[in-house]
Amino acid sequence: MQTLQVRTPSHAYPIHIGKGLLADFSLFAPHIGKKAAIVTNTTVSALYAGALEKLLRDNGVETFSIVLADGEAHKNHQSLLQIYDALLAHRADRKTAVVALGGGVIGDTAGFAAATYQRGVPLIQIPTTLLSQVDSSVGGKTAVNHPLGKNMIGAFYQPQAVIADLDTLTTLPEREFSAGMAEVVKYALLGDAAFLAWLEENIGGIMRQDADLLAQTVAHCCQMKADIVAQDETEQGIRAHLNLGHTFGHAIEAEMGYGNWLHGEAVAAGMVLAAELSRVQGCLNAGEVARVSALLRAAALPVVPPEFPFERWLAHMRHDKKVQNGQMRFVTLRRLGEAQVSVLDDENLLRQVLSA
Amino acid sequence: MQTLQVRTPSHAYPIHIGKGLLADFSLFAPHIGKKAAIVTNTTVSALYAGALEKLLRDNGVETFSIVLADGEAHKNHQSLLQIYDALLAHRADRKTAVVALGGGVIGDTAGFAAATYQRGVPLIQIPTTLLSQVDSSVGGKTAVNHPLGKNMIGAFYQPQAVIADLDTLTTLPEREFSAGMAEVVKYALLGDAAFLAWLEENIGGIMRQDADLLAQTVAHCCQMKADIVAQDETEQGIRAHLNLGHTFGHAIEAEMGYGNWLHGEAVAAGMVLAAELSRVQGCLNAGEVARVSALLRAAALPVVPPEFPFERWLAHMRHDKKVQNGQMRFVTLRRLGEAQVSVLDDENLLRQVLSA
Predict the structure, then answer these.
(1) Binding of Zn(2+): at which residues (chains A, B) (predicted)?
(2) Per-residue DSSP letters for B74-123?
(3) Candidates A33, A84, A153; nearest CB to B146
(4) CA A349 and chain centroid, separation
(5) A93 lies in the same domain as A132
């Protein structure tokens, strides 16, 4: 097991990464009181909730599960109200821990419920997908979607601990594994050219889920995320770089209906568009854009966005959270391994990228 | 105009108290960008929203109003979703200020919307009732009610500024003015015996809304609140004292249906019960309990709770946010002018107080 530390102005907490962690009560003990609510979905519940409930109960923790419908389409206010209702029905109080057991949707939804139930209760993140292990479980962003925009309602709320058990990845469908790889590639592109080269070299082994390569990959991404969050907890500056590919990606997800394109798939196609935008800005050359595409294709990810009218792209992107005083802002690449935030004042550049 | 400062670990901000403040753009300018959403209710909108919209627009701020139904019954998720929908429809972004124009319900609901829209946008509190000027607009508690409990869903989120215009109290119905006085009396009881004596002496003038006495009252309560919040922003300790009378009060509000007893009325009856609990604990004598009742009666407030079964009281109070690991906790008085938090391990004490 490796343990990293996330240090923010508001809080410090550990990320544990390794195998067999869901059977180790000592990782939970410092963060849990007499009662805990496990928030999970129908798929993950069938695989892991029973054993986790037993672990907690055998150690004297009164435990109940809240099982949401599976999928991005359910990352909404209805799921949130389902969690609140269950917490109140079970008389959860301010010391009751919320344990988020699942992927990014569960982590974000349960995390926001924990942030707002009685103005905040302890939260433990147990990410069970590659995407949530390398990205969404770390750093305290929580949110649900609104019909008019992804992650529009949320809070910055740090967990007490993140417990990333690599064994849970063995039950992950291949398509979900690939979706997680999109965020892995994102870290390389936005901030670490050496990691990009390492990924290109090892992508075959990682996709076969070689245990050592996978552990290195998860730990490296978590460390990068922890470093960025430590510098900028509430996204006043550098944290925005983590949105590489996400402005385009969110538009794809919203246009296609949440869940039809997986978040990681939309981000993959979005990163190719961001790379292309960086090229028309004069920062990347065509060969570098092709290198981005090739790595994503090797991770079995889509690199071409779905076709829909330019006006629909604009409509979605104008709701992006990086918009400030009406101006659209994009994360682009200054070079492979270094991101920047660009204010887009010429819509034609965007039209050019999207019509290519 | 008087200006007090609230300093918390997360943030520092001014409270402006005086007459004619709603016409002074210089108080808004430091906290507002290109766009602002005024959140108000049908009653307050008719009185003050037009002039405020004009002030902001005349100074170049794009402004739109979100008008909620009036009353505690509407401090719920439906109103919250109405605010989110309007913010998105008007393309509010992270720099768009939310201006809460109204009483405690508006401040709490709009405040929670500001805390969670895009994970947090600037918030300006303009309290227009005595209750919100002396209490709820200061300190960053935001929340909406759940059918199973008051203020169950919320966040700690500090405003950029509080602008308390005493002129707005002239349009306040007498019953609402009295409700605000309950919180004024609360401050005296929980932490300031000299202020209690001053209130007893001046209650007649205050109830006639003598301008100087009223300004002194509001400023004194805001200063006490600011001092307590500076010590304990997220209610780990002393801030709980501000809940004097509220555990009983919330039970009354929930049992009678939100809005039938005003919050301040329920708190008034609740403070008499808390005083009575302090008496059976051996801290107050019967004369001191009578002194509490007399002052509340002089403020035209109810001092006897509605009758309902003991089991209903218990059911409501077990959902109180001060419950920890299943134990009920009450704010009681060590003496007049000094509060404490008591763990209640003998339900019979409570039965005795409620059956008296």
Answers:
(1) 183, 246, 263
(2) G-SHHHHHHHHHHHHHTT--TTPEEEEEESHHHHHHHHHHHHHBTT---E
(3) A84
(4) 28
(5) yes
For the question of residue B59 being annotated catalytic, the response is: no
Specify whether A53 is located in the same domain as A134.
Answer: yes
B310, B298, B242: which is closest to B271 by C-alpha? Answer: B242
Is there a contact between A88 and B152 if contact means CB atoms under 8 Å apart?
yes
pLDDT tens digits, one per residue of A283-299: 999 999 999 999 999 99
**What are the pLDDT digits (tens) for A179-231?**
999 999 999 999 999 999 999 999 999 999 999 999 999 999 999 999 999 99
Single residue among A171, A188, A213 that ends a domain in this structure: A171
What chain B residue is nearest to A118 in terms of C-alpha separation? B152
Q: What is the ipTM of this complex?
A: 0.92
* A11, A95, A145, A153: best to mutate for the B interface, most B CBs within 10 A: A153
Shared-domain flag, residues A158 and A285: no
Please check whether residues B216 and B130 belong to one and the same domain: no
Nearest to B300 by CA among B209, B187, B188: B209
Q: Are residues B20 and B105 in the same domain?
A: yes
Tens of pLDDT, residues B259-286: 899 999 999 999 999 999 999 999 999 9
Q: Measured between CA atoms, how close is A177 to chain B, in angstroms?
A: 28
Annotated binding-site residue numbers of B for Zn(2+): 183, 246, 263
Q: Which token pair is B218?
A: 């509001």
How far apart (Å, rounded) are the C-alpha atoms in residues A262 and A61?
35
Evaluate whether B176 touches B201 at the Cβ level (below 8 Å): no
Q: Would you call A93 and B153 a contact, using CB atoms and an 8 Å cutoff?
A: no
The residue type at B214? L
Number of Cβ within 10 Å of residue A5's Cβ equals 11
A152:B118 CB<8 A: yes
Owning domain of residue A327: 179-355
Sheet order of strands, A2-8 included: A2-8, A11-18, A161-165, A123-127, A97-102, A35-41, A62-68
Same domain for A158 and A192: no
Domain identity same for A204 and A138 = no
Q: Which residue out of B80, B95, B119, B236 would a mutagenesis test of the A interface target, given it has the greatest number of A Cβ atoms within 10 Å? A: B119
What are the respective helix, strand and coil percentages of chain A, to the nearest 5? 55, 20, 25
Q: Which residues have CB under 8 Å from A300's CB, separation 6+?
A: A174, A175, A178, A181, A207
Q: Pairing state of beta strands B123-127 and B161-165? A: parallel
pLDDT digits (tens, 9 = 90+) for B55-106: 999 999 999 999 999 998 999 999 999 999 999 999 999 999 999 999 999 9
> What are the structure tokens assigned to A37, written together?
């609510």
- Whether residues A116 and B146 touch (CB distance < 8 A) is answered with no
Chain A partners of B326 at a C-beta cutoff of 8 Å? 34-35, 91, 93
Could you confirm whether B250 is annotated as catalytic? yes
Q: Do B325 and A119 touch (CB under 8 A)?
A: no
Domain total of chain A? 2
Q: What is the CATH number of the domain that holds B14?
A: 3.40.50.1970
Closest Cβ–Cβ partner in B116, B323, B324 for A153: B116
Pairs of CB atoms within 8 A across A/B: 108
Same domain? A160 vs A123 = yes
Give strand pairing partners of A258.
Answer: A261
Catalytic residue among A243, A255, A265, A329: A243
Chain A residues whose CB is inside 8 A of the B239 CB are: none
pLDDT single digits (tens) A27-78? 999 999 999 999 999 999 999 999 999 999 999 999 999 999 999 899 999 9
Closest alpha carbon to A331 in A292, A263, A273: A273
